[in-house]
Amino acid sequence: MKKIKGKARSFSYKRKKVEIQNDMLWRGYRSPIVLQDYNLAYYPVPKCACTTVKEALYLKKYGENHRSLAKSIHRMLPSTTLPEGRLPSTGMTTVAVVREPLERLASAYRHIIVRSRSLERFYDRGDLRGLDPAPDMSGFVSNIEAYCEISHQIRHHVRSFTDFLGHDLSFFDYLIPMEQLSNTAFPNVDLELEYSNSSPTSDVSLTDEAMAKAMSFLAPDYEAMGGIYSKPSDSSWPGYVKSSQLWRYDVAETESKIVDMTKLPSSRLFMKQASGFLRHQLIRGVLD
Predict the structure, then answer these.
(1) Cβ(16)–Cβ(1) below 8 Å
(2) Diameter of the chain by CA atoms?
(3) What is the pLDDT of residue 201?
(4) Which of 14, 30, 80, 130 is most deeply buried (CB count within 10 A of its CB)?
(5) Could you report the per-residue pLDDT of 28-81, keeping only the tens digit for each?
(6) Of 45, 48, 55, the residue nearest 79 (C-alpha)
(7) Number of alpha carbons in the 13 Å side-chain half-sphere of residue 145
(8) In whole angstroms, what is the distance from residue 120 CA to residue 127 CA?
(9) Number of neighbours of residue 70 by Cβ within 10 angstroms
(10) What is the reported pLDDT for 222?
(11) 222-277 tens-digit pLDDT
(12) pLDDT, tens digit, 9 for 90 and up, residues 92-115
């Protein structure tokens, strides 16, 4: 692996030492799961239903559900780490599942910070370097680089789409928005995909300052996926979060709007963006 020029630190990713600069937290990799029998290369992205898809692939390959408690599905169907730019075999169908970037970041926060409470072990060891072990969403986003430095789990789950899929998404034959996964046929193989996004266990909100930081942090994702997900305009940011309000998104609707969260059950609350941010548009092909 070539070293990145400039002052660098490093971290271990899939047992490989990866050099990083102060302004670049990670080096990108494309890691497909290749199914030779179906001429398919699937590129998993964390927090984009990769567990659901892998379990469906396992069922298809072995004829039974994955039940191993000793080995997670990610060990049973590991991704093949390939240097950036190296492509699968010629003629292989390439597919990836993508997700609205801000919702993906919020999902990582809910999973790692709220549900798993993964930072508590760092707090017990005194390794948090002054960071809050249980930050709210705004605190998490405002210090995202620092949290990435101390936690491989966070670093892995918030890495940019471009680190997994590259910057040119025209490389893929199919891109499936996660919101459409249950109603979309997977190419080349009939998979039993039943995905449902679990509701947050606590209110997730962002201050204006944290929203601006999130947009800066997620800029590469919105740039790469401009044909699928739209970055909200500046005019949508003022008053983004108030004491009793949260952005709500309903897959059945075409627009998001601000609503009074006290009038909705918690299962209906999702942190989403301004109207028109989601356009279910596929690149290089439309799925049935």
Answers:
(1) yes
(2) 54
(3) 37
(4) 30
(5) 445 678 787 888 888 888 899 988 888 888 888 777 777 665 467 877 776 655
(6) 45
(7) 11
(8) 10
(9) 5
(10) 92
(11) 998 887 888 765 434 333 333 223 333 232 332 332 222 233 232 222 222 222 22
(12) 888 999 999 999 999 999 989 888
Q: How far is CA 32 from CA 47, 188, 222, 235, in A?
A: 16, 15, 22, 39
Are the CB atoms for 156 and 121 separated by under 8 Å? no
Residue 178, phi then psi, degrees to nearest 5 = -60, -35
pLDDT, average across residues 1-27: 40
Enter the tokens of residue 34: 């290749």
The position carrying tokens 């709007």 is 257
Is the Cα torsion angle 110, 222, 162, 40 positive or negative in sign?
Answer: positive
Paired tokens of 212: 């601006």
Instruction: Tell me the percentage of the chain whose pLDDT exceeds 70.
Output: 57
41: exposed, middle or buried (C-beta count within 10 Å: 0-12, 13-18, 19+)? buried
